[in-house]
Amino acid sequence: MKNIYRDYVKRGLDIALSALALIILWPVMAVVAVLVAVKLGTPVLFIQERPGLHGKVFKMYKFRTMTDERDENGELLPDEVRLTRFGRILRSTSLDELPELINILKGDMSIVGPRPLLVRYLPLYSEEQAHRHDVRPGFTGLAQAFGRNSISWSEKFKKDVYYVRHVSFALDLTIIIKTVITVVTREGVNTSDGTTPDYFNGHN
């Protein structure tokens, strides 16, 4: 079904708003980059492949939030050890996500859409869940605005598919406003150590 906003307007807004955000926020990003370099080391960016529109893989940019501490065998220490207090602050405030504005400008992502997850999850989705890739992944999404880490994977995917089927300017605006409130109040952040929530295994 034709959706004028989704098919013709949304991408233009993504370009305009991400470009404006980069212009306004570059001083903040510069300060964060310097702090990351000093407190966590270089490179300051964490680059990871994620599936985007129609499952096409792209490189997503984030500020790093963990050190590269290793054990005597050269293996990286567990996340909870490498994630510092500074890294937890970056994650809880979503400052680590700011480089994704570049992904939005490039067309890898959208301001609003299902969050881009790990490539290894692709074969684990049900046919219904796989529809989350029918639109560009987002800087924020319905599941992040209304639940964040406090809801199950199945609930997140239901919200993702709902969004895909009901994309509209009004819904996007609602999600953006609720996301700001969620970040400010830290609503839905339920991992005590700030590490990544449990991985999706196809059942949870």
What does this 3D model show about the protein?
By secondary structure, the chain is mainly alpha-helical. It has one domain. The chain contains seven helices and four strands. A hairpin with a 5-residue loop joins β1 and β2.
List keywords for this structure.
204 residues; mainly alpha; 4 strands; two-stranded parallel ribbon; 7 helices
Give the topology, please.
Blueprint (H helix, E strand, L loop, with lengths): L3 H36 L5 E7 L5 E7 L15 H4 L2 H8 L7 H7 L3 E3 L25 E3 L1 H4 L7 H13 L3 H17 L19
Parallel strand pairs: 3-4
Antiparallel strand pairs: 1-2
Helix pairs in contact: 1-4
End-to-end span in angstroms? Answer: 31 Å
- Give the percentage of residues in beta strands: 5-15%
Q: Indicate the percent of residues in helices.
A: 40-55%
Q: Strand tally, please?
A: 4
What's this entry about, in short?
The protein is mainly α and 204 residues long.
